[in-house]
Specification:
The chain is an alpha+beta fold and about 130 residues long. It contains four helices and two strands. A two-stranded parallel ribbon has the order 1-2. The radius of gyration is 17 Å and the shape is globular. The two termini are about 20 Å apart.
């Protein structure tokens, strides 16, 4: 909630999406309802949820979950890019050809939910000090 709140306070443009991995269908339904009631209706309809499968647990037979639990972040991001934006990872894992070019000029910022920002992310890469 704090990250969405910070995005609202700093008037972040564009969408802000939380990627949630590993929920059951009932957990997804409950979280989506909470998100709608507490975030969408109170802060912004540009603050979204994306549900991705669990990628860490039982990912590699015989390998401890403690070693694979962090796989949810990169593979959750990949899942979001494929399902929301239409990007497809090629078999050689090198390219993401896009079937939906409307997102080709978008900028993606991957941030942990415990991080806060002090001003909005913008696509102005000049040396102006008030831009992140």
């Amino acid at each position: 909630y704090l990250f969405f709140y910070q995005a609202m306070v700093h008037q972040q443009s564009g969408t802000v999406t939380r990627i949630v991995s590993g929920c059951s269908k009932s957990e997804e339904k409950e979280l989506a309802q909470q998100h709608y009631e507490q975030i969408t209706t109170q802060m912004s309809d540009q603050f979204l949820l994306h549900f991705a499968p669990e990628f860490g647990r039982n990912a590699v037979p015989g390998v401890s979950y403690q070693k694979t639990k962090y796989w949810n972040k990169p593979f959750g991001m990949k899942h979001w890019m494929e399902h929301k934006m239409g990007y497809r990872m090629m078999d050689d894992d090198t390219t993401f050809p896009n079937d939906n070019p409307q997102y080709d000029n978008d900028i993606i910022v991957l941030v942990d939910p415990d991080m806060l920002f002090q001003r909005p992310f913008v696509n102005d890469f000049s040396k102006t000090p008030d831009h992140v």
